Amino acid sequence: MKNSIKNVKTVGITGASGALGKELTKLFRQKGYKVVGFTHSRIDNEINIESPNEWIQWECGKEYTLKKHLKKLDILILNHGIYNLSRENSNYENSIEINALSKFKFLNLFEDIALKNESYIKKEIWINTSEAEILPALNPSYEISKSLIGQLVSFKKNLLNKDTKKKLTIKKIILGPFKSELNPIGIMSPKFVSKKIYDLASLNNFLIIISPNPLTYLIFPMKEFFNFLYCKIIYKYKS
Length: 239
Prior knowledge:
This protein is of the alpha/beta class and 239 residues long. The chain has one domain: Rossmann fold. The chain has seven helices and seven strands.
């Protein structure tokens, strides 16, 4: 397959110290890829066969400082995020900054890198937005931030010009509830989710949906279809 992840050598994962990040790291390492783990935590993690080959510490708002590291990647998986139930305004600000704006900054940085890339390997970026983009998650700040990044990714993908499409593939990951520190009562296991992400990513689809909720498989493709049509209208209007 032309854009199969089997051709890719280096993968970067944000949120690599979380439950899903750890399982994705293990899986890619087992498949023979070099993994660069991006984390907000202090870098005192041991390097072993199940850890990233390299740890990079970063903080939201300073994504631009990571450009030299991002240039080395063939795939960037944006998996970081927070889930806070606080009603404080600061929680809404933090949720929007970390769950949405930070990922959008990464996306723009990686797009710029891809456009200047001279390698034969097409760069890919996979963004974990969550089914909370549309469906309730019993957390307004989380839902707002996920809705924002979901819309940004969809518009970004549909409004890419022809030159960028040749250099960059964007995939949106829609996940249902999986067990983690943020969601200890999640239904799916991180190991199961990571394997499904890996398997589905080899397809040429924009959406990677993994959820126990059958409505997710109906609602999200419909939403993306109408978003696609809307962007087509924008293109036609501009021309």
